[in-house]
Every structure is written in structure tokens, then in C-alpha cells.
Amino acid sequence: MNNLIYYIIAIYFINIFLAFKILFTSQLNLDNLNYTFILLIIFPFLTPLIYLFISLDERVRKELIKKQKIDEANIPNLNTKSISQHNDLELFCNGDLLFKDMFAEIKNAEHFIHLDFFTFNTDKFGKLMISKLEEKLKENVEVKILYDPLGSYTMKQKYFKNFRKLGGELIPFIKVKKGILNINYRNHRKIMIIDNKISYIGGFNIADKYLSRDKKLGLWVDSHLKITGSATETLEKRFLADYMYAANKKIDINTYLLNHQFTGNKQVEIISSGVDISKINQIENKMLELIYHAEKYIYLQTPYLILNESFIKALIYAANKGVDVRIMLPHKNDHPFVFQATIAYASLLVKENIKIYLFDKKAFLHSKTFICDDHYSSVGTVNLDIRSFKYSLEMNVFINNKDFAQLLKETFHKQLVYCTEYTIKKVQTKKVWTKVSEDMCKLLSTIL
User: What strand order describes the sheet that includes 324-329?
Assistant: First the structure.
């Protein structure tokens, strides 16, 4: 009996030690310090696990910080602010239409096709994409694919055997090596570049579910942007930097920075974020700047809503000064645990005169869009959650153009028809157990 007591005391003090290590680590999200503290008290058995993940993530973070200098050496002024004026933009919300357009542009490629996706599955659609790329390899068009190993965990290498024989490159970003387990720091950038002329960026990945073939998720609704213009070069430079880091080799970037004459008139700024870019999340900062300066309205779409304190305060500030703030969310989720946390944050915001809309249950909303005051808008890879802001490597396109902002606004209003409003009454009439469940998930959102 005495031995058991000693063991319990020993475990208790080990947990206390690890808890302090977690609370004082430089990588803890300080906006959620209180949540983390409460989490460790309520679920002390999670302390060693959380500490383990933080320690493993720290090794990856340090590697990605080194990447900043590597990228700058390979591509000088890579992270310098770049705004391009000559761009045509096309918005896609439907996977069938998007990939039909992608295949047409792949067919017309003359020099190279570069892809960087979080998820590249070798399911029916994935195999079709591989076959389209193999056709171009036979025409001596260069094809390079970057993918995230965790996001593409179902990928089967055997389906790329012929792709590689033809000269195609398939490179994992952040390899699992030397026992490093990387959970949080993911390459979430989803882009394709063709001949430094045409590029795509947004929420779609390469998998059947993005073509609405997943019965559980139903119709997949997303936002992806096609850019024909000078902004494509910024995307290409980012791809080349990521490729050289992942492949551990240097290439002549001028081979890929082909010159084109563009006639588009839309002003575009491409912003990347992640610890491989800066300690400061540039995409989050840009959104916060636009939110604080908004005068009429702010419309947001996101599949996940797990916000830090800075973003919550900005949205409340805007709503309190009379700005019409609306956020559209899925009514179901591909991660039930995350969905509960999302609803918890939504419940917090509706109490502050922020309108929340839940998309049709027969579909899954994965769009990541931002519209402000009939002028500024954004489409990209960033979710409105702590993971995207703090950990993931992301890219967003910010557009300063009235016509495109109007297009996004009209799309938002059309999609509102398929939504139900999540009102303060629904929050107040919830069952006690539902509220407790959501609050627990909100606590755990500090480590989601």
C-alpha cells in the first residue's frame, strides 16, 4: 500500500514538473494560456502526452527556422512584400469544374508543371491526375510534386512507379527522419503552377472527396482561385524554395521564371505564413488589419473556427462599431471533436452581435474566403483556427479589386440560401450536457 502511495506521489510531481514545462515553453499559444492551465488541471493524465508532442514539434520548428536562411540564400528577397498589378482571376467553388479547367491547362503546358498539395491520395481521382501528368512527361514537360506526408498518409507509392520512370519527381515535405514525429507543423499550401503563367491556389486537394464522392461528407463546397498573371511568379518562387529545401538540392530558378506579357488589371498580393517565413503570422496580421479598418461589412468562410484572443477581440471590435460581421461554417465536420470546439467559439461570437451561419447538412463547406467593404478580399489555404495561424505553412491571395470583391460577395449571398442562422436563442436552449461537451472541446482546442 505504501509503495502505491509513493508511486502516485511520484507521478503527481512528474506531472506537475511537465505541466510547468508546458506552461512556460516559448511555443505555447499565450492567447490560450488560461485554457491550457485549466486543461492540465482537469485532465492531468494528458500532461506527459502534451509535453511529448511539444518536444517533438520543437525539433521540427527549429528545422523550419533554419529553412528561413536557406530559402533566402536560394532565392534572395523571397519574403519581400510583392504586389502585382496585371492579373486575371477566376473563382471555382465546384471540384468538377475546377479540375476540368486544371486538366485543360495541364494539357496546354509547354515547359513545367509544379504541384504542392497537403493531400494527394492515390484513389480514383488521384490516379487520374497521375495519368494526366504522365502524358505531359512523355512530351518532355517537367513535373514536380510536393506533398505533405501526414496529409497524404493514404498515398501509395506504387502508383507513382511509372511517373518516376518517365522523369517525374515526387518529394515529401518534412520527412519523418531520425525519430522525429511531426504532428503540427504541416505544409498546408495547396498550389499548382504551369509555365510561370497560370497558377491555382485554394482549399481543394487531390482526392475523391473533393469531387463529392464521400457519402459521409456529401457535396464538397470549396473555394479555389485561378490566377493568370504576374502574381504567379510569387507562387512559383515559393514552390521552388520549398522544393529545394525538401529535395535538399539547389537549382537555377531563372530556368523557371519565364517572361510573359499579361493584360489583366487585378491587383494581387500573395502572402505566405509559417515558421519557415517569420515568427509573425503575416496572413493573420493582414486579416486583422483589414478587420480593424472595416467600415461596412466583413464576410468570412471557414471550415474550422478555433480562434486566438487577438482575432476574437478584432471581430468583436468591428461588430461593436456597427460593422456587419458574418461567418459561414459547415453544419457538419470531417473532425467531430474539432466541430464541437468550432460551435463553442461560434456560441461565444453570436453573443457579441456577430452573425453565424451553418451550411446545409447535406454538404461540407471547406471554403476559406474573406470579403471586406466591397473592395478587399482573400482566397487561400488558411483556416480560421489556431493550427493554421500558429503551426501550418500557408498561403493566401489578397485582392484589392471591387469587381472580384463583388463576385465573392454575390457567391457568399447565394450560399446563404443553403444556410441556417445559428442564433443566440439556439445557444441559450442547448442541453447542459451539450454545453459541457462543447466547452471541454474548446479547452482541448489549445492542442488541436
Answer: 83-84, 267-273, 394-400, 376-380, 369-372, 297-301, 324-329, 355-359, 419-422
Q: What is the pLDDT of residue 181?
A: 63
Note if 366 is an active site residue.
yes
Catalytic: 86? no
88, 373, 426, 430: the catalytic one is 373
Q: Single out the residue of 167, 166, 186 nearest to residue 176, CA to CA.
A: 186
CA nearest 146: which of 123, 177, 172, 183?
172
Residue 253's nearest CA partner among 268, 264, 243, 267 is: 243
Cβ–Cβ under 8 Å, residues 300 and 378: no
190 is catalytic: yes
Cell of 425: 436563442
CB atoms under 10 Å from CB of 412, counted, come to 20
Query: Taking Cα atoms as reference points, which of 208, 199, 182, 63 lies closest to residue 127?
Result: 208
Determine which one of 136, 190, 209, 224 is catalytic. 190
B/e letters for 25-34, b = 16+ CB within 10 Å, e = fewer, are: eeebbebbee
From the candidates 136, 332, 366, 409, which is the catalytic residue? 366
Read off the pLDDT of each residue in 174-182 and give the average, rounded to a whole number: 59
Question: 123: helix, coil or strand?
Answer: coil
373 given a catalytic annotation:
yes
Higher pLDDT among residues 16 and 179, named by residue: 16
CA 360 to CA 357: how far, in whole Å?
10
What pLDDT, in 10s, does the model give residues 218-228?
999 999 999 99
Q: What is the pLDDT of residues 342-396, one digit of tens each?
A: 999 999 999 999 999 999 999 999 999 999 999 999 999 999 998 899 889 999 9
Which of the pair, 306 or 438, is modelled with greater confidence? Answer: 306
Length of the chain: 448
CB 285 within 8 A of CB 81: no
| 105: three-class secondary structure by DSSP | helix
Of 67, 136, 188, 237, the active-site residue reads 188
Concerning whether 197 is annotated as a catalytic residue, the answer is no
Of the candidates 19, 52, 56, 15, which has an alpha carbon nearest to the alpha carbon of residue 37?
A: 19
Closest CA to 222 of 384, 91, 366, 414: 366
